[in-house]
Amino acid sequence: MRSRSAILERSVQLASRDGMEGLSIGSLADDLGLHKSSVHALFGSKDELQLATLAQAREILLSHVVAPGLASDPGLPRLRRIGDAWCDYLAAEVFLGGCFLCAASAEMDGRPGPLRDAVAAVMGEWIGLLSANIRNAIERGGLRADTDPAAMAFRLNALGMAANWQKQLMDDPSGIENARAAWRKELEMHSARPAPEARVPHGHVA
Amino acid sequence: MRSRSAILERSVQLASRDGMEGLSIGSLADDLGLHKSSVHALFGSKDELQLATLAQAREILLSHVVAPGLASDPGLPRLRRIGDAWCDYLAAEVFLGGCFLCAASAEMDGRPGPLRDAVAAVMGEWIGLLSANIRNAIERGGLRADTDPAAMAFRLNALGMAANWQKQLMDDPSGIENARAAWRKELEMHSARPAPEARVPHGHVA
User: Fold this and answer.
1) Which domains are present in chain B?
2) Cβ–Cβ < 8 Å for B187, B77
3) Structure pTM?
4) Quick one: which of A17, A49, B39, B67 has the fewest CB in 10 Å?
5) 3 state SS of A191
6) B143: which DSSP letter?
7) How far apart are the two ends of chain B, measured CA to CA in Å?
8) Chain segment B76-133, per-residue pLDDT in tens
9) Distances B81 to A120, A162, B105, B110, B132 between C-alpha atoms, Å
10) Residue A14 C-alpha, separation from nearest chain B C-alpha, in angstroms
11) How many Cα atoms sit within 13 Å of B109 on the Cβ side?
12) Which member of A157, A192, A194 has the closest CB to residue B162?
């Protein structure tokens, strides 16, 4: 019998493509060539399977997007690295159906219940992580003191979400590099020590 | 018997909340207290109903977001107005489940077929409209000549999508005003005649 983690490895892929509601113990067992009872013994119910799948997707996101950031210096370098790692993660097609959390967010937002709450909690954690790193960059003198952490976290998050949308619906990966460039530009524009090209908008003669 | 348009008025609301796949002739008839056969006579199949619902959602978006823009002067004023109108539309909760097209994009992106193609066509039209207005603003001297229309359209679209996400999943409407401010700032930063506060980043002493 395959282990729980091997089953979850497949369930995150299927759920990213077909949605969290599309996930079922029966279809997952079919897909893996397992008896339904084996999968049932490990997860008990569809609700459990969905929550375990979300937890697995969170781990994958942490390892692809957050861990590379933690390997960089805190403050501005870490914030820059998180943006690059997010874009790399989108370009690498880690999930069959694009960013798992982007898809789960849109799917669950109108379905009250524990699964929706769990998706919102993971997304809250992500936005909180961006905000905390922005505050940290301000405290360390990397970003200007008048930077609004919540508003900047909103703008940074928007870029990755839109890149995922453009790739998944429009079959157009160009949004990923637009997002990467805009993420860097956003940090430059609010940098306490702007790079020369960010200091004065291009085309302005002082 | 209620008219086709009255049925569609309800189906766009239900689909925005429960998804395009959640839509069915039977459930729509139940919701409206109609005989299933009456709804069936008007739409024939679930596929037809879904496509007609999407077309109705497109009309609603045109009237709420695009039409106010067309009432403004072409170029930069029109582009600014479209952003305000999009934010107003999100704040007004025009659809039960938030922005119809944002939800439909995420739902359909992994489901090949005519409905997915139709959703992508409407979104392509929207991005095309933003790009065309950006090009127009460049030609009229409102935006700098080195502005990349596709990249700017990507960034502007990202703001509204993220505002919708934050409102729908996080029950937090603050993203709408973040999006409005960032949309205006984006236009200011690329303006050929920047406002004094946009000319030099705050905190920079020339």
Assistant:
1) 46-199 (1.10.357.10)
2) no
3) 0.92
4) B67
5) strand
6) B
7) 70
8) 999 999 999 999 999 999 999 999 999 999 999 989 999 999 999 999 999 999 999 9
9) 31, 21, 24, 33, 15
10) 10
11) 29
12) A157
